[in-house]
Design brief:
253 residues, alpha/beta, 6-stranded parallel beta sheet, two-stranded antiparallel ribbon
Length: 253
């Protein structure tokens, strides 16, 4: 149902069908100009799927898990997201696309503080085009770092200047999209190499920051160069410190 200009009124017309469709597992409402009011109508419709009125009581229904909800380009904003989060956390795993929704860092903070159960079940999350910065991403990373299911994370077209080291250490993560961000660390040429290149760069930088030494050879490095610094040339290597011979000593007995 993407690209239909449904807006709030269209969602209200769809609501009975959404409530009655007990087998729904994928829903694409991208680029429908839902805005905040449309998000509220969608939340109301989704809430109706989880219970049924029998007499004077509402009985909870056990429905199939929603495995794909695509809401790209609806300008819902943080307020619209705050309405949807409690409902999505009830029974959603798989893919969630919230790209181009004007969420900002406030949206990241909402996901981090109120969306724990939702984020732990996702396998793919798209937050591209939401004007996120390092502050919002850092808050979100504190939660995502606990995930064992997230495989794909899209953060393209935001205002991210660097990424938290914990982000690349999510054990299940297999794909990270960061293009079109004003990145300084990792630099753009590393980002173009994909997640493996980003991980390698970040881990080498972390090793250098901890010890002032290269993570693979142990030499002291200049921060801006991969070449050993002048201080490294003057320092004895580990084998020399322990009095071990080198290849040049082999002929001297």
């Amino acid at each position: 149902l993407d690209w239909n200009a449904l807006r709030q009124q269209g969602i209200q017309h769809l609501a009975p069908g959404l409530r009655m469709n007990r087998g729904l597992t994928h829903l694409d409402l991208s680029c429908n100009k839902l805005l905040q009011d449309g998000a509220f109508s969608l939340a109301t419709a989704l809430a109706g799927r989880h219970s049924e009125r029998l007499g004077r009581e509402h009985v909870a229904l056990h429905l199939p898990v929603m495995r794909g909800l695509l809401l790209r380009g609806n300008a819902m904003g943080p307020w619209g997201l705050s309405i949807l989060i409690p409902l999505l956390g009830r029974g959603h795993d798989g893919e969630l696309d919230l790209s181009d929704n004007e969420l900002g860092d406030t949206g990241c903070l909402l996901l981090a503080s109120e969306g724990l159960s939702l984020l732990m079940e996702l396998t793919a999350l798209n937050l591209s085009g939401n004007a996120l910065t390092l502050d919002g991403l850092t808050a979100l990373t504190t939660v995502l770092a606990k995930s064992t299911r997230l495989r794909e994370l899209k953060l393209a077209r935001n205002g991210i200047s660097s990424i938290p080291p914990a982000l690349i250490e999510i054990p299940s993560l297999a794909s990270l999209s960061l293009h079109d961000n004003p990145l300084e660390d990792p630099p753009p040429h590393v980002v173009r190499g994909g997640l493996a290149a980003i991980r390698g760069h970040m881990r080498r930088r972390a090793a250098h920051d901890r010890k002032g030494r290269c993570g693979c050879c142990g030499l002291v490095l200049c921060l801006g160069s991969a070449q050993p610094s002048a201080a490294a040339a003057a320092e004895p290597r580990d084998d020399e410190e322990w009095g071990m011979g080198t290849d040049d000593d082999e002929g001297d007995v």
